Amino acid sequence: xxxxxxARRAPRRARPSAPAESFVSRNIVLHxxxxxxxxxxxxVRSALARGQAGATAREQSGGKGNGTMAGTEEKAPALFMGIxxxxxxxxxxxxxxxxxxxxxxxGGSANVYLDFAGALAxxxxxxxxxxxxxxxQSDAGGRLRVGLGLAGVSSPAIAAEVAAxxxxxxxxxxxxxxxxxxxxxxxxxxxGLVIAGTGSAGLALVGGREIVVGGxxxxxGDDGSGARxxxxxxxxxxxxxxxxxxxxxxxxxxxxxxxxxPAAVIRWGLAARSxxxxxxxxxxxxxxxxxDAVALSIVRGAAASLAELVAAVRRLGADRICLVxxxxxxVRPYLPAAVADALAxxxxxxxxxxxxxxxxxxx
Length: 363
Known about the structure:
The chain is an alpha/beta fold.
C-alpha cells in the first residue's frame, strides 16, 4: 500500500513558474555563474569517502549554450559528465574527451521546481557516485565539466541558481531536461522531441531556436505523462467506487490497496507528488494490455495527448521527431499508426545530450 510521501520529504520550496514565452527565441542553455576551481565540493568528497558505488548503488533502490565558468588551469584532460534529472530519477554518465564511457550512476528525483534542495542533493549524490564508479580520486572534480538537464528549469534565473549551488567544477552548464533529451536524440542537430516520462513536453530545436510545447507541470499540464496516467487511474477508481461508472479488475485492484476506503485514498492523494502518481503507470499499461476497459481508455487518452504534441512540434518546423522517456515504449503501440510510423529512433539518450551540453563528444 502506498504511504503518504510528504512524510519523508522536505517541505516544497515554492517558486514562480515562468511563462512559456520565456523559451521562445531564447537560448535556455543558460550562463552559469563563475566560481574558482580549487577542489571538488564537499558533497563529492564525502560521497567518495562513504564509498558510494556507481550505477548499482542507485539501480537497487535548446542549443548547446555558451555559458562559461572560469577556473584554474587544468592539469589533466577534461572529463564530461551529463546528468538527466526528471521527476522520478537522476541519471549521470561520465565520458572522457574521446567519448568513452567511464562511469554511470542513478539517483533520486531531481525536479528543481518541486523540491529544489532535494533535486540538488540528488545531483550531488549522482556526481559523487559516478566519479566513484569510474574509479576516480576526489581531485577529479577540478577537471570535470558538467552538463545538467533538469526538470523544472524554466528560466535563466533558476538555471543560474542551480549552477551557483554546484561550485568547484571546471564548468557547469544548466538547461531544461527537454533540451538535453533533444540534443541527445538528434546528436546535437536540429530536430524535435516529445517526452513521455513522469511529465510530458514537446520541444523543437530549429535554426538555433528552442520552442517548448506543453510541459506546464503536473497540475496544469503534462497530458499523456506517467503522472497523469496515474492520476486518471485513481480518479476512475474513485468514480467506480461511487457507482458513477462500472468497476473493472484494474479499478478494484487500486481500491483494494486501501481497503476499499476512499478516505484513505484521498489522504494519500493529497500528499502525493507527480512521481508517486507516475509510479502507477506501469500497472495501468499492464492492465490495458490485458484488455481492461478503464485502463485501455486511460492509456488511449494519454496516447492521443502525446500525438497532439508530436503534431505541434512538427508544425514548428521539426522534420525529425523522437519519442523518448520512461513511458515511450509502452505508449507507442497506442499511438495512431501514422504518428508512430513517422517517429525517428533517438541517436542517444538525455545523458549524452547533457554531455554534449557540457562540451563533450560522443563516439
